[in-house]
Prior knowledge:
Blueprint: E1 6-11, E2 32-33, E3 37-38, H1 41-49, E4 54-58, H2 64-70, E5 84-88, H3 103-108, H4 111-115, E6 121-126, E7 129-131, H5 135-144, E8 149-155, E9 165-169, E10 175-180, E11 189-198, H6 199-208, H7 217-227, E12 232-236, E13 241-243, H8 247-256, E14 284-285, E15 290-292, E16 295-296, E17 301-302, E18 305-307, E19 310-311, E20 316-317, E21 322-324, E22 327-328, E23 333-334, E24 339-341, E25 343-345, E26 350-351, E27 356-359, E28 377-379, E29 384-385, E30 390-392, E31 395-398, E32 410-411, E33 416-418
Parallel strand pairs: 1-4, 1-6, 4-5, 8-12, 14-17, 15-18, 16-19, 17-20, 18-21, 19-22, 20-23, 21-24, 22-25, 23-26, 24-27, 25-28, 26-29, 27-30, 28-31, 30-32, 31-33
Antiparallel strand pairs: 2-3, 6-11, 7-13, 8-11, 9-10, 9-11
Amino acid sequence: MIKKEMIAMLLAGGQGSRLGVLTEKVAKPAVAFGGKYRIIDFPLSNCINSGIDTVGVLTQYQPLRLNTHIGIGIPWDLDRNEGGVTVLPPYEKSTNSEWYTGTANAIFQNLDYMEQYHPDYVLILSGDHIYKMDYEVMLDFHKANKADITIACMPVPIEEASRFGIMVTDGTGRITEFEEKPEKPSSNLASMGIYIFSWQVLKDALVALKSQMNCDFGKHILPYCKERGQRLFAYEYNGYWKDVGTLGSYWEANMELIDIIPEFNLYEEFWKIYTKGDIIPPQYVSADAVTDRCLIGEGAEIYGEVHHSIIGPNVVIGKGCVIRDSIIMRNSTVGEGTVMDKSIVAEDVVIGKNVVLGCGEEAPNVLKPAVYSFGIATVGEKSYIPDGVRIGKNTAISGVTKPEDYPEGRLESGRVIKAKDGDKA
C-alpha cells in the first residue's frame, strides 16, 4: 500500500480567455513565459522543491502541448515508480461521461486517483500563477493550527479586492468570514487559489456537493465547510505572486524579469525553476546586432536591435529590425527592417519584412475591449503577417493573413483580423 503524507492536485484545464489569441490553440498553463519556460513550470517546480513527489495535473482545454511538455515529469524529477506526475484528463465512465464543470468537480472526478495514495493532506493548486512558494511551510502552519482547511492568502490593494475571494480573520489567522468576489470587500486579504485540505474533510465535502452544478472551491466547497463549523485558516504569503491572466499582467510579469534587479529571480540556486529543455544550439548575436536588457533563448539568431524584450528559443530577428518592449515566443521569425513596439508574438509566427507593429495612437478594441487593451499588439500562434503592413495598438491577429486583409496596408488601432490557417503565402 502506497502512503503519501501530502499529494498535490494541479488544476491546468483553463482556457484563459482573457489572454485572447494567445490561448486559442493552447491551454493557459502551457503558454510560454520568460523565454524558455511555460507557466505550469512554476507550480510544478514549487512542488518538487517543497518535497512533494506526487502531482495530479488536471487538463481539459487544448491539452496537447501541456501533455507533451509534462511527459513523464523528468525535468521536475517527477518520473517516479510510486507517485510522480500523472496527467488527468476527463474520461468516460460507465454511468456517464462529463467534462470538468468547475474546479471542485474536476477534483471530485479524480477521487479514485487520490484514494490510492491514502494521503493525510491534499494540496490544491492553480496551473496559471507565477510565484515561488514552499508548500511544506504552509503544511506546518496547517498542522500547528489543527486546521481542516488552510487557504494561502496575500494582501492586495483594496481597489482590486473585488476580483478575488476575500478573507476576514481573527487575531489567530482563523477565517471568520469568506466572500467570493465581493462588490464591497470588507478586507484586502485575497485567496491565492492555493488550498491544503485534510483528506477526510475534502472527500466528505466533494461527495456531499457532487450534484452541485459547476461545483467550485470558492463558491461552494469553502462556504459548505465553514457552515459546518470546520476550522478554516488563512496562511499569509508575502512573496512575489502574479496571476498572469490578462495580456497586461502577462506582459508586465515578463518585463519585470529583465529589471536590473528583478523582483522575481528565475535563477536562484536554492529554488530552481525546472522546465523541459530541448537540445538546441546556443544563441547567435551577429557583430552588428544591438541588444540591451533582454532575455534571449537558446538557438535564437539576432541580426537587428533588441531593447528591453524577451526573445524565446529559436527565434530569428532579421537585419535592420528594431524590437522594443516586446515578447516573441519560440520558433518565430521576424523579417528584415521590421519595427515592433510593445507587442506579444506567440509561437511559430512568421512576420514579413518592413512591418510596423504597435504604432500610432491607442483606440479601444472593437471586438473585446477588456481583453485587447494595455496598448499591446498581439499576434496568435502560427500566424503570418505579410511584408510592409502597419499594425496599430490594442490589435489582435490570428491565422495566415494576406495583404488584402489590411486596407491601404494598415490595421488600425483597436482592430482584429482572424484569418484561416493555411499555407503561408
